[in-house]
Design brief:
OB fold (Dihydrolipoamide Acetyltransferase, E2P); 8-stranded mixed beta sheet; 3 helices; disordered C terminus; alpha+beta; extended
Length: about 200
């Protein structure tokens, strides 16, 4: 999957370069001078209008996910997937600041026996509700597969996937402060060990 994404990005970059060069030869800005930047901007607009590269417009982004690459001091260096094909490649690497107010959680897999018992209770309630059409149907939520527990900053490891939330729009911000970090549950393969933090 990663190789496919990389291939698509490389091909897209080549398309952008070609379109930018082509548009630079034909697109004339108000100043009357031909520039590569003008061609690039025109190519981006053309791609966005065609739907090949969806526009995010003024949409605010307050949460991103990625892989922890480096942990240093109170900062996390995070590698994310581009938010759009036209996003600045420099923003693929973010610097996440934390302090004592940053809430950090981890999703842990629930005990299978407990989860199975909760599922049986859920299925029974669903059957009872389906058999009683006259009763007012209240939404029944299935049990969660994971438990959200609070952890410390030192529990975060290099190589883990995390979701970071900020109070501000971070779409175009490289370094920002996190108000919440969630470490995603990723089952380990046999023989796999956690990567140590980078000093």
């Amino acid at each position: 999957m990663t190789k496919q994404i990389t291939t698509i990005i490389v091909i897209t970059a080549l398309v952008f370069f070609g379109l930018g060069f082509a548009f630079a030869n034909y697109y004339k800005p108000d100043s009357g001078s031909d520039t590569y930047q003008a061609g690039w901007d025109a190519a981006k607009q053309r791609l966005e209008e065609s739907g090949f590269a969806p526009m995010m417009g003024d949409m605010e982004i307050t949460s991103i996910s990625g892989i922890v690459k480096v942990i240093k001091d109170n900062n996390i260096y995070l590698k994310i997937q581009p938010l759009t094909l036209l996003a600045d490649s420099d923003l693929d690497n973010r610097i996440i600041e934390t302090d004592e107010n940053t809430k950090i959680y981890q999703f842990k897999e629930k005990d299978q026996a407990q989860y199975q018992a909760e599922m049986e209770g859920f299925n029974q309630k669903m059957e009872e509700q389906m058999g009683n059409f006259e009763a007012t149907a209240e939404p029944i939520m299935p049990p969660e597969m994971f438990i959200k527990t609070e952890i410390s900053f030192n529990d975060i490891k290099v190589g883990q996937q995390i979701t970071v939330t900020a109070q501000e729009n971070i779409k175009d911000i490289k370094e920002f402060k996190a108000i919440e970090i969630i470490v995603q549950f990723m089952p380990m393969m046999p023989g796999q060990v956690d990567a140590p933090p980078v000093e």
